[in-house]
Amino acid sequence: MENQRAAVTVVIPAHSAERWHTLVRAVASARSQTAAAAEVVVVVDHNPRLFHRIRRDLAGITVLESEYLPGMAGARNTGAFHAETSLIAFLDDDTVADPEWLSRLLAPFGDPDVVGTGAGVTPEWTGTRPRWLPDEFLWAAGGATATRGARPAGMVVRRDAFRQVGGFGTGGGTSLYARMTDLAGGRWTFLPDALVRHQVPARTTTFGTFLRRCYTEGRGTIRPATLRFATDLRTLPRALARNLSAALRGEGATHVLRAGTVLAGVAAAGLGTVIESVTARRAPHHILEPAR
């Protein structure tokens, strides 16, 4: 692999001035890596005032405006297609990467079959973690575990394989994970020690938000390979049984709530999968169109 400083571009999408302080932290963490990136690119999602503020106040980075229709996928694609390095890393504007994050994710690319690597993303609660949220569904709060695979915030991909599949599409990170595995003929490696912390505002930890994210996940995972059925069929029944057993032993209402959350989350994801499987027969994967 080429020299680490020249190997990777870090792309950070941004859309709102309300996240200014977390964006500053994200950029600082990207620029403080032990394996220095060739370029840190912040892509602004259709917010001219934020674009000019970043250009004025944040030094040492490249600032671009999204060339696609509004949305995180389009902003990420703008930065990724701008990159000239062989590898592309992604953070979000509400994440902070540990100093060793990038060096750990770059190491597996010595194997030419690896097309992407995923970080361990841990929620950083600004309020209190919801009592009803079991560990198996932390991904719905922006976390990532080995059982769920790579999330967009924190992943590194090979540029050629990313471009081969058209980048991020309407299915988001889960769809990219599947398409790069299948169409580009490679494999992913998950490195839980490559840590990224994702800030979770209290307003996004409602049960309704949880159900919407499960539904969206279901719509992005219509095939067994991408849904990771083998893993889910082991972990989710175990989570249900564990919490029901604890509730029956009188260990508190929290376990009843978490058991109900498992059932509700599976139902929401299942509904999304059914709807996507029907609509997918009518239309192929939708690549994002540039903004007019």
UniProtKB/TrEMBL annotation:
The record, for InterPro entries, names: Glyco_trans_2-like, Glycosyltransf_2, Nucleotide-diphossugar_trans
Q: Which domain of life is it from?
A: Bacteria
- Tell me where in this chain the Glycosyltransferase 2-like domain is found: 9-156
A Pfam family assignment: Glycos_transf_2
What SUPFAM superfamilies does UniProt report for this protein, alphabetically? Nucleotide-diphospho-sugar transferases
Alphabetized PANTHER family for the sequence: GLYCOSYLTRANSFERASE, SLR2126 PROTEIN
Q: What is this protein called?
A: Glycosyltransferase 2-like domain-containing protein
Taxonomy, top ranks, is: Bacteria, Bacillati, Actinomycetota, Actinomycetes, Micromonosporales
